[in-house]
Amino acid sequence: MYQFPKDFLWGGATAANQFEGAYQEGGKGLNLADVLPGGKKRLELMGSTGFDFEIDQSKYTYPNHEGIDFYHRYKEDIALFAEMGFKVFRLSIAWSRIFPNGDETHPNEEGLAFYDRVFDELHKHGIEPLVTIAHYETPLHLIKEYGGWRNRKLIEFFDRYVETILTRYKNKVKYWLTFNEINGATHMPLFGLGFSPENEETRLQDSFQGLHHQFVASARTVKKAKEIIPKSQVGCMLIYAPVYPFDSNPENVMHARRESDLFNFFCGDVQVRGEYPYFAKRYFEENDIKLDIKEGDLETIKEGTVDFISFSYYMSRTDKKEKTPEEMGQGNLVGGVKNPFLKASDWGWEIDPVGLRIALNELYGRYEKPLMIVENGLGAYDKVEEDGSIQDDYRIDYLREHIKQMGEAVKDGVDLIGYTSWGCIDLVSASSGQYAKRYGFIYVDKHDDGSGTLERKRKKSFYWYKDVIESNGQKL
């Protein structure tokens, strides 16, 4: 049997915009998630050009506005996390709760006080907070007035936000993540970079310029954290999907290699190694990308490398150089061709536990930094039985097989320090804006038609995960 480290950080993960609700309470300003509608239209808008960032309640619903009301129910939810035995809880701070427009000089005290209460409640139950500083929550004013992260001025605004929260929570938060799934930005700039491309011709140029600004902001965050909280640990956060060649055709093998380099390692190389990767020069030249790099930027990036690497893992990706639309599968931001050896979830995401072991070995082999899996889980339709129970054996099976592969990676020699299952309590899906796509160990009575009491119920997986944590991964 494999053995997880005795201080392994077991827990769960969420994002403010997907579960807090109270979108206009406590002085909070509007952010990106507040203008994204629920349902099928969301993905279409996220992938298109020219989204107007307006709320239109005559046409759409906006489930993020209410989320699951963690804002008012955090004590109840944290007590449930404690009952499962969480060692760590990943959450994000909503930037627009702290600076409602994003460019103010003074923060909103009500927003700061809310997170004080949350962190205090977590510590009361012996749970370590793991805080994502930016998780698809760019203040709407910074999007409309400045054009999102394309504009270098956002570095200055982010600096102010970061210094404010590091100073306020220096005695309450040790673990920090800078930008959520930072490498997804070139595929979906709306989410990570806070802008909708004006046209396809400018998408890559604008996206990589925005990423450069985030790299500088992330490095400055690391340096600032070491000043304010000397014992802090700051990580990057990647979306990771191993890329398999469809077959042994060398053209497809090389294509898969290049796709993996660009998607999985480009951002990691900058944030972990402190420099742009060797393959960036050719890619930039071939795609006519010309970065505006100011004096001192590269030195800042070199000096502000992260302490550990965190990542989301939901699926692997299979690809080939020439493909047809009929061959394509679904995916988390990026897809590939269908893999005949893998089954898929209700939303078409292929299920590949061994891919997680591959991901862990690839990341550790490249960087030799501690790793933390901060998102992994199964989005599925859950049914409440007549007796009130939720028999989600399919979720247990999914998580069990992934945790087994984590154990194999630990035996391989990977330095794995933690695991936070995504959506440990049901919340609003980021990609589809649905309540119906449930990930949690805790069921929340809220539905896509707006109905529901918000009552919390323990699923079968709740008790299973409690045993997993209690046995440090030995009882699966």
TrEMBL record:
Annotated keywords: Glycosidase, Hydrolase
SUPFAM superfamilies: (Trans)glycosidases (SSF51445)
Domain of life of the native organism: Bacteria
Family annotation (Pfam families): Glyco_hydro_1
Gene Ontology biological-process annotations: carbohydrate catabolic process
Signal sequence extent: none
An annotated GO cellular component: cytosol
Gene3D superfamilies xref list: Glycosidases (3.20.20.80)
Gene Ontology MF term list: beta-glucosidase activity
Family: Belongs to the glycosyl hydrolase 1 family.
Protein name: 6-phospho-beta-glucosidase
Organism encoding this protein: Pelagirhabdus alkalitolerans
